[in-house]
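Lab meeting prep.
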Amino acid sequence: MFCFPVATWIGNAAAVLGGRWGAVSQRAQAVGCSREAVYQQSRRVEQAVAREQSRGPCYDEVCAENQRLRAENEALWAVWIATEALPEAKQQEFAATGSAMGLSLTQIVTLLAIIMAQCRVPSRATVGRWVAQTNERAGGILAVLDQACQALVMMLCLDEIFFQGVAQRGARGVGRRHRPGTRGEAAE
């Protein structure tokens, strides 16, 4: 926003660029501004002239680009605001899926904070309750699946999750669990 007419800016630039000693102080006093303002206006006049000479973007192009960017920004905000209204059921599904993929509660809350407004992000305790409820429901289904699949197990594959529990009981119990040559039937 211009506080002084353009002619004043050009006069200030002339005082800075071609004036004799003391011209900047006299010019500042004459137009009622500080010397620093005179120097700043002179720099802006120089930049405008240099831009015009170098065939840089004209004022109309810059304004059009500014309007385009403002419209894009408004559209992005509209989309982001629409994502804020993530229903609680979807949040619970997100938390359960994240937990099943091995994410910690803190990681799940962090990811929710990325896609939701900060004031609407559920607490870590709430996410923990959701995950615990989902685990309870899944526990019943997994027990039935374990029973149905137990006879089909042909090979025992151990991983680090299994070994965390085995370390407390001792690894020797693993070898006695299934007899060699059987197709996954539990040892008696």
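Slide two material, second protein:
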Amino acid sequence: MSGPRFGSYFLAGSHDRFALASIVPEIDQVVVGLKLVSFLDPIISGDAAKNLETIVLPIYRQMDPEILALGSEMGQAYDDVWGRSFDAGHYYLATPPRGLTGSPAIIFVHGSAGNFVSYLWALRSLSQQHGFAVAHPSFGFGMWSRKGGVEAIESPAWRDRSILVLEGAEDDRVPQMYADRVVAQLRAKGALVDYRVYEGHDHFLLFSALDRAVADLAAWATSPAPGQE
């Protein structure tokens, strides 16, 4: 295939290479954040932060130079925290070996704290081994519930859509009871929901159970939708 396997693109705005978040390597931003998070976030204890450090930092140390060269877009997450405006048109893109044309697509919506470039690396096998084009849009600190989020979950457009939901049984940030409620809402709208709860894992199961999560996602995405077998 021609072109890069991984890219950083903008529908609006552009990369600010002089911003502090662009100058300081993202791994160093994460190290500082994990040292401070237990003081700023009552849900994440000191022990939880240390556990996150042992899970997340190795991902950065294993990263391909092609991804490291993309730089960090965490600046918009910081802008969002401080109430400043940010460009919502940025996304990372992982292109499969066959190229984008005709490839199935996955859109990965990041969680709170921003669109870490480590997500692109962690999910690389979905594009490089399983053939999906994987887009990672950025939206500030990750407050996706703003401006249309609730309406989206209640939309009749979900009818007959096949959806996979992965939830950590020990998640104290988005407790299982809330995931249960969302799944029930989606099913009530006619969505075909495959709901899987990971026992012993919390909100950060994408890192703590990465191989299992990617395998489940790849298997689900390549299986016929119910009624289409």
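Talking points for slide two:
The first strand starts at residue 6 and ends at 10.
The chain has a mean pLDDT of 87.
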